[in-house]
Amino acid sequence: MSEGEPFFQIGWVIDNVDMLVRRVGEHMTVTVIAVGAGFVISFGLALLVRRYPPAYGPILAVGSLLYAIPSIALFVLLIPITGLSLLTTEIALVSYTLVILVRNIVTGLRGVPAEVIEAARGMGYSDAQRLWRVELPIAMPIIVAGVRIATVTTIGLVTIATLIGMGGLGYLIVNIGVQRRFPTATITGIIIVVLLSTVVDLGLQALQRRVTPWARARQA
Amino acid sequence: MTSSAAVVRLEHLSKRYGQEGGALAVSDLSLEIPAGEICVLVGPSGCGKTTTMKMINRLIEPTSGRITIDGEDVMALPAVELRRRIGYVIQQVGLFPHLTVAENVAVVPRLLRWPAARVTARVEELLNLVRLEPATYRDRYPAALSGGERQRVGVARALAADPPLMLMDEPFGAVDPILRDRLQNEFLRLQAQVRKTIVFVTHDVDEAIKMADRIAILQRGGVLAQYDTPNAILAAPATDFVEHFVGADRGLKRLSLARVRDLELEHPITASEGERRGDLRQRLEAVGADYALLVDAQQRPVGWISRSDLQGDDPLTAEDATPGSPTLGPETTLRDALSTMLSSSVQLGVVVDERDAVIGLISVDAISEALRAPQATDAPATRRR
């Protein structure tokens, strides 16, 4: 930053709207792929736990271990294998979502009251019908809560992936803002990340309310 | 409503949990449950009554023996298909919280892939049957229902596909005593309409006596102690265990098996407001009666008028009558009738119909007469039919 320049230049933001929109798009693409892939894997693991409950402990242990690895360290470990690629980014991001998503899906499924399961069996639901038509819908609020946490966490983490060239808004914060000493970009990036997290979180919450109208009747 | 009922036969049924050598939960149990009857399995905890019931819809698989429904072995069908043909009601109801009342009731018809129009019509019919106004309740979620409403939806759901057999596991066990009594009465009224074969599990001997056409009393280890009509069991317990289990007040309990309408009612002299005192006095003197029952224009009881109070010839008014006798319905059990009369310290109860019009009188003497004569209550076939 040169002497005399204002700390925050609104003009730069206006001039670069196109670039900002593109970065937001990139950021969200990386996030959605990570949460989507994380969800598919976590769902499979949760179904495994539903069938073989003893698998839960080891799965959580591995998930927690992955969660504990600092993200930069994980990138460093992965670069020799998968290079500076989207794949490296996604592997790291997905591994952070697993523990959150598996835990919430399993907790949601286990929260289905025993008498509801017994009634479903007694009515003649097959195992698969019971899962899809009874257990998952009832677990939905807790599952969506997990997706919200995983998504917000991932939106924050994507910025770090700028270190391997996949950072979306992280590019603004680090590459332009910090490395070129241009605080306007850093501040703009942070504000957009926070706004993005909030909007996505509220959007998912609204979606959850919409698909589980019965959950509101409980408070009524 | 047309419906069918199934004969259920348990043949040498045994269940052993765990490995060979483990204790038997059910031991060589054989029962035949006639079509259209309520068979109550009752006994202390650990007697295998719930295990026995759950073997019928294969929620639990028997260790040995077999079960047939209308002659067909339950093992002949896939368990899921078998269960769709058997109604199932449990104590905690287990309504699906994410489905509306209508969707809950529609569960089995939809599993059976009924056309949508038939499902809708059936849901309406069932909600009316359990006295839940469809327009009010159809779209509610279970969380917005009271305990009694939930239980009724549970019964409607079990009846949805018109199964010939229903299994009910302590269905009224989780509600307060007043509501339980009401739900029991409603269920008996419903059963009189639908006439299903019902296997009903309870640990409460009073509930068993009230609900059952036949009671199977089980003791620890799933051993059948006695299987008979409630009246026969109360009149002649087969073993010390049964005698102890049904309680020392079994004579009194037999009173709960007979209803007011089973007795010959006495007919009071009735008088209407506006009748001249002199006329009534003459009518009472003519039959040698001391009291008349004053009724209103709809024949509803107002109170008693004593002959000695009938001075002059003014028209009778409601103020002349002394209220006091409790009113009883024809369906009131003799036990409840006696209890009501004792607690209002009168010798007579006024029996009224559903519009509260007087149909007769019942006395404490008539009830004790019924208790003395076994044949008076020995008519299970006429109890509800």
Question: In order across it, which strands form the biggest sheet of chain B?
Answer: 6-7-8-3-9-10
Shape of chain B: globular
Number of DSSP E strands of chain A: 0
End-to-end distance of chain B, in Å? 16 Å
Low-confidence stretches of chain A: none
Topology of chain A as a string of helices (H) and strands (E):
HHHHHHHHHH
Shape of chain A: elongated
Arithmetic mean of pLDDT of chain A? 88
Percent of residues of chain A in beta strands? under 5%
Largest sheet: number of strands, sense, barrel closure of chain B? 6 strands, mixed
Indicate the proportion of strand residues of chain B.
15-25%
Give the radius of gyration of chain B.
Answer: 25 Å
Question: Could you characterize the architecture of this molecule?
Answer:
- The complex is a heterodimer of chains A (220) and B (385).
- With 220 residues, chain A is mostly helical.
- Chain A is built from ten helices and no strands.
- Chain B is of the alpha/beta class.
- Chain B is built from 16 helices and 16 strands.
- In chain B, the strands form four sheets. In chain B, strands 6-7-8-3-9-10 form a six-stranded mixed sheet, sandwiched between helices. A four-stranded antiparallel sheet of chain B has the order 2-1-4-5, with helices on one face. In chain B, strands 11-12-13 form a three-stranded mixed sheet, with no helix packed on it.
- The longest helix of chain B has 18 residues.
